[in-house]
Amino acid sequence: MTVTSTGRQVTAGNPAIARPFAIMQLVGGALLLITLVTAILAKDVKRNLSWISFCSASIISCVAYDLLFFVGQQTGPSPDRGLCLVQSALVHAVPVMQAGVNLALIAHTWTSVRAAVYQKNRVSRCNLFILFVAFPYILTIALFLGFLVFAIQHPQTVERDNMGVYCKIVFDGVPSKITAGISAVLMLVSVIFEVIVARMLIRHWKLLCHSGMPRSFVIRVLVFSAVGGLVLVLTMVYVVSDGGGTGADFIMASLPLISSLVFGTQEDLIRAWMFWRPPRPMAVKPIRARNDSEGTLE
């Protein structure tokens, strides 16, 4: 344990905890990056903006949590002050971003299922962009700037956590409670959308079977949203109750890995990676009434 110039004690960090956490984040982020690049470049893989936004946000989150790892300052003396200030603001803002893009993904799924079931057009693309893509990032940037200004004005509240995983703001738990409160609201809305989508799937399953709706993707989104929401809730409980540590850190680090497994193992992505195999002939789709959800859910 060392003491900074402000008189604050700084733990040396625990590499047995910090490095596995960082590696989990790194592997999850790398897998998601491969998945995202494949979806963007492969001509036979089609994904919507909310899906791309979700993967991008998860990658940003991985980078944010691994900043100390990248510069080799998870353990040892006190980390670089500027880097620690930036990371402390990021780690309090990215959970909100993750909750926001998760809500955007499930809400976009709801609009697509609703359009397929009721043969109604969805809201305009401009409104979709604002709701599904821009809003989570606007909120996250605002929170990041707010936390960063606070950290700069009160540097004594910023410290590397006991395990050396990342820097955080310690101020009577207020930043963590702000993050947890906003994330909880977003996750509650996500749960409402999940229930509505699940109910629509159950009631109109046969209709969706004939509409061309990618039901497997809808189920993947529902499963991940449920698991991701549970993970975020558990993490927020750890943080707000000041019981953070190994359990909360590794629960949070599991999210990128879960995301990469859920969304990176879809059939069209796997076919895109198997470049040596000839492309599969396109199936003839039945003629049906056209709706705005066709080909846009995945």
Give me the CATH architecture, please: Up-down Bundle
CATH fourth-tier homologous superfamily: Rhodopsin 7-helix transmembrane proteins
Give me the side-by-side strand order of the main sheet: 1-2
Write down the CATH class.
Mainly Alpha
CATH topology: Rhopdopsin 7-helix transmembrane proteins
Number of strands: 4
Envelope shape: globular
| H/E element sequence | EEHHHHHEEHHHHH
Kindly estimate the percentage of residues that lie in beta strands according to DSSP.
under 5%
Sheet/helix structural class: mainly alpha
Keywords: Membrane, Transmembrane, Transmembrane helix
Transmembrane segments: 20-42, 49-69, 89-107, 128-152, 178-197, 217-240, 246-264
Provide a brief overview of the structure.
The chain has helices spanning 15-41, 49-65, 67-70, 81-118, 125-153, 174-203, 205-211, 215-240, 246-263, 267-273; strands at residues 2-3, 9-10, 158-160, 167-169.
